[in-house]
Specification:
structural molecule activity; 3 domains; six-stranded antiparallel β-barrel; periplasm; Flag_FlgI; 7 helices; cilium; disordered N terminus; alpha+beta; 373 residues; four-stranded antiparallel sheet
């Protein structure tokens, strides 16, 4: 089967397998803002612990979630209601964790979205209302306060003997449900230099970013420090402020250098690879082993008017079938996309194709990062 990867097989695979392998497109220039993170321009995570009320009997069972009773008592006491020694057994409240992300340059009074998730045994947060909940950052300070009606993403229906759940009714969101109360102390305008952190560190990409920025300003204002960092001299750009300098360079087009990489997902049978993936000369043999077991029991009855009983005699047919595609030899320097296209032409299943790629990598013939998820 030396002709496995012939030109006719490749053409047939591309013509008859539209749902199979698709050749990768050529690299295109990308905006600088999509390749790097600007030093200091980052979001901060917020976390709070609160109470959801107004649930239709789907809240926490307070015997199983005593913390719900505790927070409810604290809220009522802050409102002037004395509940000392009282026993609560409602099913319309639930304890939740509230998470949010404080975006960069958020100002006091700005609204942000929040996510609400049940932490007790509540079965649904649908229709609930989050009571005023402070949101803290990692430094322990309160940066926002959340409150509002929850939009849950699921529903639960149940009867006497069955229950069905669609989505996740124990988690939901509140769009613009929190208000920023404290701003992050960061004097962006006082910066005299800024570092650009590459999301995918690469020396070639960093060098191209340095060259593109210097070419845009006509003088050396950018310096590559390593594979993941490029430093910008804000004063050298002549811009009136760091914001003006960043606004000028963030839309510069740069063609990133992508490492040869193969990513496979065994659960879905998905294979994704870059255009620079190459393999050396290698021979591949792949086959399938099928085991068939069939039960054909036979009923045996005694003769008429004779003592005895009817019995079932087990009968089992067992067979093994093995099918193989033979030995395929691939020339060195062949792109992996051509190999996969040839395997598609032969009707190789995605899971079998993943096993073949693993074997090629184990043989040292696959020259790329191999990532299995």
């Amino acid at each position: 089967m030396r002709g496995l990867l012939s030109a006719s097989a490749l053409a047939l695979s591309l013509a008859l397998s539209p749902a199979g392998w698709v050749a990768p497109a050529e690299a295109a220039p990308v905006r600088l803002k999509d390749l790097v993170e600007f030093d200091g321009v980052r979001a901060n995570d917020l976390l709070g612990y609160g109470l959801v009320v107004g649930l239709n009997g789907t809240g926490d069972g307070l015997r199983n979630a005593p913390f719900t009773e505790e927070i409810m008592a604290n809220i009522l006491e802050r409102l002037g209601v004395n509940v000392t020694g009282e026993q609560f057994r409602p099913r319309n409240v639930a304890a939740v964790l509230v998470t949010a992300e404080l975006p960069p340059f958020a100002r006091a009074g700005s609204p942000i979205d929040v996510t609400v998730s049940a932490i007790g045994d509540a079965s649904s947060l649908l229709g609930g209302t989050l009571v005023m909940t402070p949101l803290n950052a990692a430094d322990g300070q309160i940066y926002a306060v959340a409150q509002g009606t929850i939009i849950a993403g699921g529903i639960t229906a149940e009867g006497e003997a069955a229950q069905v759940t669609q989505g996740v009714p124990t988690a939901g969101v509140i769009p613009a449900g929190a208000t920023v109360e404290r701003e992050v102390a960061f004097d962006f305008a006082a910066l005299d230099s800024m570092r650009l952190a590459l999301r995918t560190p690469d020396f070639t990409t960093a060098a191209r970013i340095e060259s593109a920025i210097n070419g845009n300003f006509g003088r050396p204002v950018a310096l590559m420090l390593d594979a993941g960092t490029v430093e910008i001299d804000i004063d050298g750009t002549g811009a009136p402020s760091p914001a003006h300098a960043i606004g000028r360079i963030e839309n510069i087009l740069v063609e990133p250098e992508i490492r040869a990489r193969v990513v496979v997902d065994q659960r879905s049978g998905t294979i994704v690879m870059g255009e620079d993936v190459r393999i050396s000369r290698v021979a591949v043999s792949q086959g399938n082993l099928t085991l068939r077991i069939e039960e054909a029991p036979m009923v045996v009855q005694p003769n008429p008017f004779s003592p005895g009983e009817t019995i079932v005699v087990p009968r089992t047919n067992v067979g093994i079938e093995e099918e193989g595609t033979g030995l395929a030899e691939v020339d060195g320097g062949t792109s992996l996309s051509e190999v996969v296209a040839g395997l598609n032409a032969l009707g190789v299943a995605p899971n079998d194709m993943i096993d073949i790629l693993k074997s090629i990598r184990a043989a040292g013939a696959l020259h790329a990062d191999f990532i299995v998820r």
